[in-house]
């Protein structure tokens, strides 16, 4: 398993991301990574320094690819805000990665596994969480400004509620909970934004 001459480092990081996502940090050994990436331990260390460094790169890779798709799905430019939020939240719990449902979110999984024990990991998970919070605040503000949500809506508080709901949904998805039950929670969270304000008389 020597390092191939046409080795693609970014593809290797993508493959490592999938492995860490499925198994978690502690359950993934250097041998597992070598098998997945088709590298000898010496080649893996030479390329990525160590398992922890590769894990950080995998986390960064996941955040970059997921954030692009999430931003696209949270674009409320031409659609009602409630529809955008509902579809996005359903997408979070129904999009199997590579045909493997039940993985949850790599960032959420990492935060629950490593918690605050790893400063470099915590910085990345908190940054990812803040991106989601900010995206929610933006969507909610757009809805309020367009008259789809009450002008009295506290968008910061509403974003925190939706964000907390999302974290719970991702954990439940990983636990294999039924989509119909998760959808009930999603619909209730959306209704919690209040009724649509009446239009001008």
From TrEMBL:
Any one Pfam family match given in the protein's UniProt record, by short name: TetR_C_13
Keywords: DNA-binding, Transcription, Transcription regulation
Database matches in InterPro entries: Homeodomain-like_sf, HTH_TetR, Tet_transcr_reg_TetR-rel_C_sf, TetR_C
DNA-binding region range list: 29-48
This protein's record includes keyword Magnesium: no
Span of domain HTH tetR-type: 6-66
Transmembrane segment boundaries: none
Keyword Cytoplasm: no
Source taxon at top rank: Bacteria
Identification of the protein by name: TetR/AcrR family transcriptional regulator
Source taxonomy: Bacteria, Bacillati, Actinomycetota, Actinomycetes, Kitasatosporales
């Amino acid at each position: 398993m020597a390092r191939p001459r046409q080795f693609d480092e970014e593809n290797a990081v993508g493959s490592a991301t999938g492995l860490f996502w499925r198994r978690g940090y502690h359950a993934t050994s250097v041998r597992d990574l070598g098998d997945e990436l088709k590298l000898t331990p010496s080649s893996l260390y030479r390329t990525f320094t160590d398992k922890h460094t590769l894990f950080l790169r995998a986390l960064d890779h996941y955040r970059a690819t997921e954030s692009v798709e999430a931003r696209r799905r949270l674009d409320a430019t031409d659609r009602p805000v409630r529809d955008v939020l509902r579809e996005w939240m359903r997408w979070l719990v129904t999009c199997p990665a590579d045909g493997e449902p039940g993985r949850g979110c790599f960032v959420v999984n990492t935060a629950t596994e490593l918690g605050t024990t790893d400063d470099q990991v915590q910085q990345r998970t908190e940054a990812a969480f803040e991106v989601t919070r900010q995206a929610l605040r933006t969507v909610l503000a757009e809805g309020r400004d367009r008259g789809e949500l009450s002008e009295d809506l506290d968008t910061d508080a509403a974003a925190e509620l939706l964000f907390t709901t999302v974290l719970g949904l991702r954990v439940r998805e990983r636990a294999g909970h039924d989509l119909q039950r998760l959808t009930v929670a999603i619909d209730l969270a959306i209704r919690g934004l209040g009724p649509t304000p009446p239009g001008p008389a």
